[in-house]
Amino acid sequence: MTFFCNTDAGRGDLFRRLFGEALPDLPFAVPGDDVDAAEVRYLLTWTAPPNLRDAYPALEVLFSTGAGVDQFRFDDLPPQTQLVRMIEPGITAMMQEYVVMGVLALHRGLPAYLGQQAREEWKVLPAVPAAGRRVGVMGLGELGKAVLEALRPFGFPLAGWSRSARDIPGVVCHSGASGLQDFLAATDILICLLPLTNETRGILSADLFARLPQGAGLVHAGRGQQLDAAALIAALDSGHLEAAVIDVCDPEPLPPGHPLWHHPRILLTPHVASQTNAETAAQVVIDNIRRHRRGEPMVGLVTRERGY
Fold first, then answer.
1. What is the reported pLDDT for 88?
2. CA-based radius of gyration for the chain
3. Which of 44, 142, 260, 298 has its CA 20 to 30 A from that of 23?
């Protein structure tokens, strides 16, 4: 019953030490070790190894090293395998920091001021109080709720949208296709934190941007395949959107010469909004293995009905 930690050497060494202290009875392996794949019951990885179903026939739990699991397909997993995404404090805190940074940058006109700096232009732009800037979050899972909580002290009117109905104190919640129009029409800064599914692929489209108010902004920290980059550029160039903060794109890395690199009203970062803290992540995985051994539900368990 081996735990295979398919990660870099530094993280692997840390996991080995912590697992040795907490689960000394569980054989532990990293890339380069002599391990029998047929004995692997637990696998921690970011991407699925080739031929996963046949290579790891006894796999019971596949742990993602990150909050996303759209890189895995249930059809590629052994039928008994459970899929668990990473939910740990480091991921949540970093996402809160990044989204607050992006919202404040758009709220206070940072892209425009950076353009003025490049032109050596000293000009004060109109300011809007936070109470007059409506902020909406697409995706009301753990990260979405945490981001809304981090934004609350600034005084922005807050709203959220998700596939199914949610109830969050102090947040106007919308859900489903019927609630999307009202949500978008009342959102001045849109934050995308949606998981990648068949329904959310390409959701940040020309049609969606057109439903936002004139002068709206976008903070995109979901998944690159959700964004129609050409539609975003067109919406910015037309003036319908004011600016955007983009952390994820398709493809990654972004190739040289891509329009997202140099657009004056886009702040672009290389998929750094949220990163897993190795020590807290190891503890989360250890706790989940203990839950699994006791027959209890694991934190971050993804159901096959979600369509990944």
1. 86
2. 21
3. 142
Whether the CA torsion 160, 165, 168, 171 is positive or negative: it is: positive
pLDDT digits over 65-83, tens only? 988 888 898 888 999 999 9
- Upper half-sphere CA count for residue 235 (Cβ side, 13 Å): 28
Query: What single-letter DSSP state applies at residue 153?
Result: G
Q: Give the pair of three-digit tokens for residue 20.
A: 């040795």
Tokens, residue 243? 């600016």
Question: Structure tokens of 245?
Answer: 């903060």
Q: Annotated catalytic residue: which of 166, 240, 271, 291?
A: 271
SS3 state at 144: helix
Distance CA 170, CA 155 (A): 11
Quickly list DSSP for 74-139: GGGS-TT-EEE----HHHHHHHHHHHHHHHHHHHTTHHHHHHHHHTT---PPP---GGG--EEEE-
Q: How far apart are CA 252 and CA 239, in angstroms?
A: 27
Q: What is the mean pLDDT of the chain?
A: 94
Instruction: Give yes or no for residue 10 having a pLDDT over 50.
Output: yes
pLDDT of residue 308: 40
Active site residue 223: yes
